[in-house]
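User: Show me sequence and structure for the first protein, then do the same for the second.

Assistant: Starting with the first protein.
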Amino acid sequence: MRPGPRNLITDVDGLRVGNARDDKIKTGSTVLVGDVPFTAAVHVMGGAPGTRETDLLAPDKTVQQVDALVLSGGSAFGLDAASGVADALRAEGRGFQVGDQRVPIVPGAILFDLINGGDKAWSDNPYKALGQTALAAASADFDLGSQGAGTGALTAELKGGLGSASLTLDTGVTVGALVAVNPVGNVVGPDGQFWASAFEIGGEFGNRGPVTGFDPAGPLVTKLTPRTATTIAIVATDADLSQAQATRMATAAHDGMARAIVPSHTPHDGDLVFAAATGAKSLTNPDIDMMTLGHAAAACLARAIARGVFHATPAPGDVMPTWAQRFASN
């Protein structure tokens, strides 16, 4: 396995990512959109999820494909970002055909970033416009860190961020991850090494090595206000997966979250992983290939989480430092 040419989820051909942010509010939205509809699934392990259109992603439901997936800040307000994306896609003539109407299918998930130092005194919900702006910006290339849904994200002690990573498997199949990192827990040990360090490739988040100075019998390092959390992610592949197989990939990808965040999947996190499969490449050995896809998705997600925090940048009014501010000179 090796990273794709961009080391982004958009190494999966046919997928694009767009970001929009509001630095005054300290929030933003991220859109993953396909050139054509793609198979999608979801798996939730956190205790406090905020979602839109996730029930229809179960394998027994009628709709098997979606037009886009949305990750957003804003808690429940942020669910409106997907409405903006749906409106814009409808204007483009995209969506599920029902008679003479088209209904874009746009599931979404949100994280809590309402008390991160930004000005939240808006009179009109800003997230519909943020969703539309993010969709308009969708491209194969995009920035990491304090971008999109990761703009106002926070970890236990550091700014969070938007992360991504990819792997190309020996079979030629590509897997990628996209994540907005805002957990109750921490992504680094006491000395700034990332919990995900065992999966780092090519110094992509500082090459600091394994965590040291951690006392497993000591207290957990978590946010002082634990309800201000949630890490939301997408794992994607160009493999031809059924919705049931995509659900299995999303489920396996949660291992990557647990490897990169301590603690993860808490009652106060709405930890969620969407899966997207474009179907361009057939599985040659489904039993082995599905095991490998799950492993690759977890590895990509762990790396993406670390990259999101590693690339975060400071901004006026921040309530926490970035990784670079606290550890880069150590």
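Switching to the second protein now.
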Amino acid sequence: MSEKAYRQRLESDLAQWQADGVITPAARDAVRATFRPLPTGIDVPTVVAIVGGLLIAAAFLAFVAANWTEIHRPLRFLILLAGIGGAYGIGAVFAHKGRTYLSDISATVGSIIFGAAIALVGQMYHLGDDFAGGMALLACGALVAAVLTGSHGALAVALVTGGIWHGWRSVELADIQLPFLVYCFVGGILAVVWNSPVARHLVGLALLAWWFGFGLGLEQSGFLNYLVFTFASGAALVFGGGLALSSRGPEPVTSLGATISIYGALAFAISLAWIIAAFFDGAIPKLPPGILMCAGLGVILALIAAGIRRTLGTALSGASLALGLVAIFTFSRPVVGNEPWLSYALALAAMLCLVLSGILDGVRTRVVAGWIGLGCVIAAITWSLTGSLLQRAVFLSIAGGIAVVFAFLLARLRQEKPA
């Protein structure tokens, strides 16, 4: 629930409690006095100004590109420096006036112009054609800008371009690019310091991008099918690590962990369905021990979080990871007459546990991740390209019947009727 929605709900409750005589007007005013001012949103003039700033930046780049050949090299370089300095200078003016959104977009525009300057200077002085190297340089500059200015947009530029560099180098060199984890670490620190939802989401996506690039690099090294299995293992670690991070500590830290765990849960659910659908060629690869340890560590961290919180919902998250990983690493590519029923059952149980964990912990996004995973797993079981559809129909009917019986037992234990 957003802070504004919570505030509106609390105001309504306070009015009702006062009308019912539960609290006095003095108590109501005392509660209201504890309210912090609501953060200001983006108003219409700010939106128009942001669009105008982006158009001016695009016009600047278009003008420079149109007259590039007629401008002498030293003047070209000075124009680029002026564009970068002007963007950050305008951002400083806006920051001084308290216009945080406009100062943020100014720093973002400055980072984009910096990237264009890298490309244009490379073309101007005939430097080596290294696209990934240019992305790495832009990512470093944007990350420095984010640290110095507090710009969310600059952080987004840094993580996106850093992810492009990571993926490009992984394919190009068939190797793992560990330095990108530094970008993720710095982004995580900024997300905690800023206590920013935007930064938290960027870090969650960046971590998954690193694992995707990791698997891509291994697959480019000649290890078939490493991508999806490595990504699933990484998603398990991100999920479990996020739960552990969110279990105790200051609110900015727990919020970062909660956001990361949601991305891990969703990525794990999708990768589990991908494997169950057998949308890969050949057999399960023999993964390096380090990757298997990362997957197991995700389960351990989730169980540690459950021990700290002492909640059934978090324990079910650990169970979901454990069941899903067993389903993944015992899966054999289905052939006619030889269906992996155990893996199917474990995958369904894993996604059911994920849904229940989100419900019991009151985390709607985890519930959504579980439902998405459950739907994808059911679709994967039903529509895989091999095997008998009749046998799968019988299996799904049995699984559905077991789920219904389980629902009735839960309802009986809770002394309520099933929905």
